[in-house]
Design a protein that fits this description.
The structure holds 2 protein chains of 2 kinds. By secondary structure, chain A is mainly alpha-helical. Chain A has helices at about 1-15, 15-35, 45-50, 55-60, 70-75, 80-100, 105-110, 115-145, 160-185, 190-210, 230-235, 240-265. Chain A has one domain (about 1-265). The chains are: A mainly alpha, B alpha/beta. The structure holds adenosine-5'-diphosphate and magnesium ion.
Amino acid sequence: MKLFTITKIEIKKSFKPVLLLSLLMCLFVLMIVSIFDPELFEGIEEMMDLFPEAIKDMLGSALDLTTIGGFYTIEFLSMIWIWVGIYFILKAGQDIPATIDNKTIDLVLSKPLKRWEFVLGRYMRFVFSILLVILFIGITTFILFEIAPNLQDQEIDFSEFFWALTWAFIFVVSLTTTAFFFSVFLNRKKATGLAFGMMVLFFIVGTFYSYFEEDVQEIKRISLFFYYDPARILVSHSYENVLRDFLILSGYSVVMVIASIVIFNKRDIPV
Amino acid sequence: MEVIQVKNLVKYYKTKKKVVKAVDDISFNILEGERFGFLGPNGSGKTTTIRSILGLLRGVKGEISILGEKINPNKDTVYRNHIGYIPGELGLESELNAIQMCKYLSKLYDISFNWDEIKNIAERLKLDVSRPIQELSKGNRQKVGILTSLMGDFDILILDEPTSGLDPLIQSEFFEIIKERQEKASCTVFICSHLLSEVEKFCNRVAIIRNGKIVEISKISELKQKGLKSFQLEFTSNAGLMEFVQYLESQFLNATVKSQSVNRIEFLIPPEKKRNLLHDISEMQWAGEYIKDFNINNSSLEDIFMKYYEIDNPEEER
Ligand SMILES: Nc1ncnc2c1ncn2[C@@H]1O[C@H](COP(=O)(O)OP(=O)(O)O)[C@@H](O)[C@H]1O
Ligand SMILES: [Mg+2]
């Protein structure tokens, strides 16, 4: 199918940077695992109490640095939108506009390739790339958990980490989809700018909503960040509403991709 | 058979400030095996017409038929299998070289990659296929575009300013390649250009487009016959010339003066007026004297074409 031809070609083209990102993330996980020391953070909770509430909110509800689950969440998973998300937002926001700017799109779309195949093909490349990065992270994580000497007395539930990483994957995809959506009708600068703006707004709303007036607090529900809380699994060991959040984030991505296809199908390809 | 039929094609671009009537109700047919030229100044709507046919633009009104079948360029895509295309604004994957680019597109288009054929054309165009496209000059990039457009089988070849950036030798080689291809595969060629010489040499028939409207469609040979007559006159004095100019302005409203000096004038008039004018020139006296010398030519196609261009920019003419 044409769709996968495009995906394959595009993955091949961006394989090196994605691989590099994956390796960086693996190193990062290695670093986190190797500096983890439960005793080091024994007193941290009392210390954290001195921190303003806002900082604590930012770090997530999991201020439990004494378990690897909490440590991994705070240092890595809750920040995944910075470590992995920004890269993909930048790429997705520029992807289709770049083909218009460098005019390669004329050659691609002048042949029997449907617009939806083009859009979906290019989108799938991001999904697969993100999957690859998360897969690398997951494998590294699991291997390190098995062999790291400082983790041998930790109680680690692998399935919890599996679901937390899956959650991270769905979350990064939803952020990327937002940027991709803007890119089908805006130019690169506007699309990436708007996607970043949205992300920051989502972050602020999803993290600090408790400071808002009581009756506008429900605004938290518009934020993607509100539906991403790996600490729930890794720290509180609870799966409450996790399925709901999975479905909302994936549903959001699906709707945005369909909207992207519809909008792109209606537009001129300018010269 | 009509290979391309376009009826009442309309495409306006709506920008924030204004509406650009890029293509404003044009109709034309291109017959099988024909080499049809689409001639017009920059910004006259040639590229817009082509990109409307190829389904790259939306909000296009009118009817389009390809190979006898009515198509909806917004939905149908299969008809594009029959079309080879060189975009006016060529965009290539700059990090690839020519071979990789061809391979890439053959994969995307699902067509066979015929290395011998590509190598042959590349050699004739003097293109180094192993150098990355980003290192190539504009002309050499254009050659890559030509290579990609000639891959696979097609019944129609749509060329949008195909020779831009090519030197004259390569240009004629390019037209040779297209002609050979046409003889071999009997395809139809639709070529867009702002250069008359190109179209004049290569095409059987031409449409002249200006401001989004077709102002003339005819065979090149007919166009030449329809051509204006060019008169060059020499008078003995400036007074004679001035008197003649007055006469010309009063009697031949559609004459166009091409040049004028102290006692010489060159102008164009429609062929049917030739006899009248000739008579008057030889019989009448100008400021008391007969004309000193005169010369009549068929105007070149260039002149005819310039006339269409000039109407385009009446301000600039002065
Ligand atoms: N995307 C666009 N938005 C607004 N106007 C455009 C756009 N593309 C082309 N035009 C205008 O449409 C007219 C026709 O352009 P074009 O078809 O490219 O001409 P040509 O190919 O004959 O040089 C020009 O006046 C051009 O400025
Ligand atoms: Mg053009």
